[in-house]
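Archive entry: two folds, one per protein. Generate the first.
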Amino acid sequence: MIERVHLSIDGAVATITNDNPDKHNAFDDDMDLRLFEILTELKQHPEVRAVIWRGEGRSFSSGRDVGSIGNLKVELSHHELMRRGHRGIQQLWELDAVVIAACKGWVMGGSFQRALLCDLRVASEDAKFRLPETTYGVIPDTGGVAVLYEMCGHGVVSDMVLTGRVLTADEALTHGIVSRVVPADELDATVREIAEQIAAAPAVTIKMAREVIRHLALPQIRSSMADEVIYQTFINRSDDIAEMKAAREAERAPRYTGS
């Protein structure tokens, strides 16, 4: 099988690369599992002090590969699938290394939310951020809404989640979603410079500083993710979702009841 998520380690800096460029690095189940394996592997490398997470090609990631939905290679209930995804990505919080997301092109859906769970986000000028889940009849379910709420407040989160609007890199900087915006051809060099600066600092200092920040942020994020498992599972079994699928199959307007 061709791996479409790669790990490389260069001294104290590791790099995770999303490598499905023909689909703007959209994730399917195999890519999810490889990402979770890489996070597990990184926990066994104490020499790694900073991790860069980037995308090959034009985008960081356009989220879920819609064509892969419903094509799981293992039998898992919707609830179990979500729990596996949450446990997998929450390994980010178990790393002693700082994780920096290099955001370019499309940063969308679950991949946008995963980037929000990282320590830092740096964007290229062409980056576009979006949470399109409600347009597919579901809700964001990877913890990102809790992070956005802390960063932006009620209004921006509601606009992004309920309308699926696209946020530009400059808007993301204004709202604190990213810490820097740089020209596209400088993105990789900038995140590498940040990673090397962090890796050169005293390890215990960085570790304790991150613990302070995590104690402020993680309880709310964990609580939100627990809610997401319950509500997304309910939506998956709801009358409205069944009606949405039936209406699309019959090429007619849906008649939603809110149940």
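Generate the second and append.
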Amino acid sequence: MNRLVYILLTALFATACIRDVGLVNHFEERLVVDGRIEAGHNAVVMLSLNSEFSEEYSEEELRDMVVRWAKVTLCCEGEEEVLIGRSDENFPTQYIYRSTHIIGEVGKSYTLTVDYSSQRWSAQSHIPAPLQLTDIRVESVDDLHYSITAILPPSDTPCSIDCSLDGSSYFAPTILGVYDASAESRRITINPPIEGFGYSTLFDGEDVVVLRLNTLTPFGYEYWSCWENNVVNNFNPLFPAHDNLPTNLTNNAFGIWSGYGSSYHFVGKLSEAVHN
């Protein structure tokens, strides 16, 4: 159930608005896209539908928001492939569309097209060059909790950090993990991703952690900065999310299709990876 929280967060942020009593909210169901391609990897796309504000969502209602019967097409330099849809419980939607023949390459542009319910949406993006984290350190805060820090190299390209826990093939966005471009290297603290409605800024000692550093396109930076701002604001009931997420998709869809320059860093089981 915890990973389904991502669907709810994205769906609500996509349709966020200020709910003044005097305003009439006309809800319109729209497609929400979360798609990525990176160098050396297949494209992966999650599709869902947006939702109205609600006090509670059941697991069944969240699953019904997932789109499983779309035609998803990927094009690059004259090559075209229809992505294969399949179940994958590691991902928030528990259903993904993945390319098998087209593999990402740095510098190339990729066009995604989604056909569903007699409508079509599309977006284009390119893959920037990747960066590498250095000097990754794990430190014990107490008997049960650990912190992770790393050196972020200087770059003229913004970046973000995702995290996989305990062998999952899905990498969730870390909190406060979006960084603008900087001419200097920086030591950063890496916070865990949201895995449920409760949240801690520390990792558990039993967590097995893999980090993914993504260089971002200009739109990727705009999108994930806004997504992160809405997440952080929602931790405080006095400052609820109110900004609509931007999108690079046509035809009034929500979400993002983006290329990423990604590098992977295996940290391991934190209780055994403490920096000496």
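Annotation attached to the second fold: Confidence is low (pLDDT under 50) at residues 15-24. The helical segments are 5-14, 59-64, 218-234.
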